[in-house]
Amino acid sequence: MTFNEEYSHLIPRKIVEELDRYIIGQREAKRMVAIALRSRWRRQHLPLELRDEVLPRNIIMIGPTGVGKTEISRRLAKLAGAPFVKVEASKFTEVGYVGRDVESMVRDLVELSINMVKAQHAETVKEKSAKQAEERLLELLLPPPATQSPGIYSEGREQTPSYSESYEQSREKLRQQLHEGKLNERAVELEVKDKNFPPIGVISNVGMEDLEMNLRDMLGNMMPGRKRKRRVKVPEALAILAQEESQKLIDMDEVVRDAVQRAENAGIIFIDEIDKIASREKGGGPDVSREGVQRDLLPIVEGSAVNTKYGVVKTDHILFIAAGAFHTAKPSDLIPELQGRFPIRVELTSLGREDFVRILTEPQNSLTRQYVALLETEGVHLEFTRDGVEEIAATAVGVNERTENIGARRLFTILERMLDQVSFEAPEMAEKKVVIDAKYVRERMQDIVKDEDLSRYIL
Fold first, then answer.
1. What is the DSSP letter of 26?
2. Residue 179 falls inside a structural domain
3. Are residues 135 and 34 in the same domain?
4. For labeling, which of 31, 194, 362, 419 is most exposed (least CB within 10 Å)?
5. Whole-model pTM?
6. In which region does residue 241 sit, left (phi positive, over 0), alpha (psi from -120 to 50) or beta (all else)?
7. Is residue 114 part of a domain?
8. Mean pLDDT across the chain, nearest whole number?
9. What is the domain range of residue 196?
10. 389-415 confidence digits (pLDDT tens)
C-alpha cells in the first residue's frame, strides 16, 4: 500500500474524531496536527517538480506537563501507521560534549521504520512460513527414511512403495496430532543461531551506542554465525522454525528500501522538553551548550542527509513536533533560525475538574476501565459511581494547586494510592464487589490530602 492510499481516508475531521476517542480537550492542538498530517497526503498529489519544494508543517506545542502533548503525537503516528520516535532535547549535547548526538534520533527513526516494514512483510508470508515450519518440524519428529543406494546385495531387488506409503501415513497422523495439540508436551532438538556476542567497549564522546552497534553488526557479518543445539517443546519449536522460514522469505533489500522511504516521507520525530535548551540570556556557561544543541538540531530540522547503516536518509520531509512547558523560557528564546523551522505554534490549556471527570470516564483506555479490568482477573468487581469519579477529580485538582501541577498524571497517582488496599487483598477477599463512591474516596485520601507535606511525598 502506498502512502497516498494509507492517508486517503484520513481527512482532518476524522483524525480529530479519532484523537477524541483517547484524548480529552485540546481541540486546537488536534486540529493543527490533523492539518499537518493531511498536508502530507496533499504533497504526494503534487507534480514532481513542486513536491520537493513543499516543507512539512512542523509544530511547537506549548503547555504544562500532563495535558496530552506526547499522547496527541503518539496517537497521530499510530493512526497514520507512521514511524514515531520521541526524544528529549535535554539528552542531546553539542558536538564535543559528553552525550548523544542529534543525528541519533534519525537513526532511531529508521531502525523503527525497518522493524515496522519487516513486520508487515512477515505478515504477508505468515501462512507460507507456517506451512514450511510445520514440514520441518514433522521431519524432526519423524525423520524421512534413508534412501538406499544400489549395491551388490540390492542388485535386482525391486523397491516396493509400501515403506514409503507407510511413512507418509505416519507423517499425516503426526500432523493431525500436531494440529490437535497432542504433541505440545513433546520436546525436540533444534539448531539455532547463537546470538550471544562478546561485549565491545567503545571509547568515544559522541554517538557511543550507535558506534558500538555498528561494530557489532560489522563483526557479526564478518564472522560465521555459530549455532548451538536447544531442546524445546513443540509449540516453541514451531514458533522458532516459523521465524526462520519467514526470514528466508522476506526480501531485506525491499524492506530497507520501503522503510527508508517511509521514514523520509511519513516519519514523525517528537522533541520533548525543547524549552530546556532555550537560552534565556546571552552569555557563557550552560547557555553556550544549549545554543550549541539548537545549532546542531537546525540542519536536521531544516533538511539534511544523515548516514545510517541502511544508507543515507534525507530529513527534508520528516515531521518534527516539539513540545515544552516554557515556564521560564519562551519560544522566542530559541535561536531565530530554529524558530523559523517551526511555523505552527499551539498552546495547550491546563486541565480542570470537568476535564479530569471526562478523562476518567470517556476515553476507550480510561484509567477507571483499566482498574476494573485488572481486578476482574481476580474475580473482584470494581464499580465507580458518578460522585466517586467527581471526588477523585476534585482531589486531583486540589493537590495540583497546592503542590506541583502535573496535569492528568495526578489521577494515576491518586487512583493507585486509593486502591492499593484492594489490589493487595484482591486474591483473598470474601466480598468480591467494591463500590468506589465519594465517601470511599474521602475515607481513603483524607489524611494524606490534609497533610500538605505528606501529600508532596505520596501524591
1. -
2. yes
3. no
4. 194
5. 0.79
6. alpha
7. yes
8. 83
9. 126-143+165-249
10. 999 999 999 888 888 888 888 999 899
Residues 19 and 89 in one domain: yes
pLDDT band at 225 (very low <50, low <70, confident <90, very high): low
pLDDT, tens digit, 9 for 90 and up, residues 71-90 = 999 999 898 889 999 999 88
Closest by alpha carbon to 390, among 423, 356, 424, 421? 356
Residue-level pLDDT at 96: 47
Here the cell at position 12 is: 482532518
> How many domains, the chain?
3
Q: Which residue has the cell 486509593?
A: 418
Same domain? For 321 and 374 the reply is no
For the segment 377-381, the average pLDDT, to the nearest whole number, is: 91
How far is the C-alpha of 324 from the C-alpha of 276, rounded, in Å?
8
Q: Of 291, 312, 347, which residue constitutes the final position of a domain?
A: 347
55 vs 36: CA distance, rounded Å: 10
Residue 155: inside a domain, yes or no?
A: no
In this structure, are residues 89 and 296 in contact, taking their beta carbons and an 8 Å threshold?
no
CA 250, CA 401: separation in Å to the nearest integer? 55
Is 152 inside any structural domain?
A: no
Q: What share of the chain is helix, strand, coil (3-state, %, to 5)?
A: 55, 15, 30
Question: Residues 112-161: pLDDT tens digits?
Answer: 999 999 999 999 999 999 999 889 888 888 888 766 555 544 444 454 55
DSSP element (H, E) containing 420: helix 420-425
The C-alpha angle with vertex 146 and arms to 144 and 147, in degrees rounded to 5, equals 120
Tell whether 91 and 11 lie within a shared domain.
yes
Q: Which of 325, 347, 369 is the last residue of a domain?
A: 347
> In this structure, what CATH number is given to the domain that contains residue 368?
1.10.8.60
* Torsion of Cα atoms, 207 then 211 then 217 then 222, to 10°: 170
CA distance 447 to 172: 69
Task: Supply the CATH number for residue 335's domain.
Answer: 3.40.50.300
Look at residue 456 in the predicted model and tell me its pLDDT.
Answer: 60
Residues shown for the chain: 459
Q: Which residue has the higher pLDDT, 198 or 190?
A: 190
Same domain? For 339 and 434 the reply is no
Distance in angstroms (rounded) separating the CA atoms of residues 360 and 358:
5
